[in-house]
Amino acid sequence: MRCVVFGATGYIGGRLVPELLDAGHQVSVVARSPAKLAERPWRDRVEVHRGDVLDADSVAAAMRGHDVAYYLVHSLHSRDFADRDRTAARRVAAAAADAGVGRLVYLGGLHPDTPTLSAHLASRKEVGDILLAGDVDAVVLQAAVILGSGSASFEMLRHLTERLPAMVTPHWVHNRIQPIAIRDVLYYLVAAATLPDGLNRTFDIGGPDVLTYLAMMRRYAVVARLPRRIVLPVPILTPWLSAQWVNLVTPVPGSIAVPLIDSLIHEVICQEDDLTALVADPPGGRLHFEQAVELALTRTSHEQVTTRWSDAGWPSDPSQPSAADPDWSGSTVYTDTRERHSSAPPERVWRVVEGIGGEHGWYSFPLAWAVRGWADRISGGAGLRRGRRDPDRLHTGEALDWWRVEAIDRGRRLLLHAEMRVPGQAWLEMSVSPADDGGTCYRQCAIFRPHGFAGHAYWKLISPFHDIVFGGMAANITGAAEHEN
């Protein structure tokens, strides 16, 4: 089949593409920023379209010539996510009909049959309904908690259980959930491409276990070989308060924690299992909860996490300037530039640069970075705890603590775009070049484009600390390279 995937830079889409390729399908992908896909191992096996699901023309262009379209886009980071997803779904459905696409496939959320749903589940249901009401047949798969290395649901479960040996919990931890392993979700998504013609309906998909969230935490502790967790239910913890706690304790920011927990106030279990009459079980059967957790932990410990919840970028206004804009663009730009010579060869300095962040830290005034990270988390930003996927290598588009890798010229230049809450746009550029004496010229530039008076005031306020933060960073990065064994 000729398949097009919307959302290929996200957690599910990034894993689905190679599965479709391995199944023998021809695959095209759509991304707002194709550069994010430059280093994916499957990049040379797919056709890449630049597009945005809110741009009708780019959606129409991407749809042409395809048999199946996978729609795997959500706007959770936006306050108006329901409006954005509604508009996007209508444009995708219309473009699929105009292009003669044979089937739409959407991964929605498992939900009870009740008129009152959380905003997140209501939006997921609405998107599915829009696709089903269109002129192209749609297969809407509905899943609850997805268990896999790097998924937001799994990271929330993992960090809550590992970091809190004793905890007070809200009443929703006693609601029943039917989790499913990411391996099985991908299996059913691939199978959806070749289901019999004429299907236009939802299918509930879930694993073999129905558990409460409390049971999931306790079973996770057993698999992870942790002591039994002490849990004290407290009825006064609202979903919003619970989400703020998750925001502080786990890497999952409040903008994602709120809709995830809002969904857990419902019991989410499969109401039917009709797909099994059309599709055989995955090889070895659907994974039980313990098997899915064990697999996810193994991949995490072996640094084999191919995609993460943070891979999808936070929303930004395309009209916003970028660090590559020329000086004549007219906006005010503040910079802090540091240059240092290192006796270490360029490749050694580069290893330190590319290994920055995560467990390695930022080579400068750790307390200041920690305080700024906590402040960002409290205000709903990314904070520092997103970490990094690989301890040694970075890839364009991936999250790195509160930054995102905007560009990387391996061995020469790294450009990071800040996703912390600041009144403007911020970048950090680090570059390495050979020196005449066989050492290295290291150059570091912090770039800030302020927004309004608050942006100008912000830069002036933090400027006195630049020598400590940025000067210390440059000195410590070159020093670390020189002392590397």
From TrEMBL:
Compositionally skewed regions (Low complexity) per UniProt: 314-329
Domain NAD(P)-binding: 7-117
Positions of region (Disordered): 306-340
Gene Ontology molecular function: protein-containing complex binding
Signal peptide as annotated in the record: none
InterPro entries attached to this UniProt entry: ComplexI_NDUFA9_subunit, DUF2867, NAD(P)-bd_dom, NAD(P)-bd_dom_sf
Pfam families: DUF2867, NAD_binding_10
PANTHER family attached to this UniProt entry: NADH DEHYDROGENASE [UBIQUINONE] 1 ALPHA SUBCOMPLEX SUBUNIT 9, MITOCHONDRIAL (PTHR12126:SF11), NADH-UBIQUINONE OXIDOREDUCTASE 39 KDA SUBUNIT-RELATED (PTHR12126)
Name assigned to this protein: NAD(P)-dependent oxidoreductase
Source species: Actinocatenispora comari
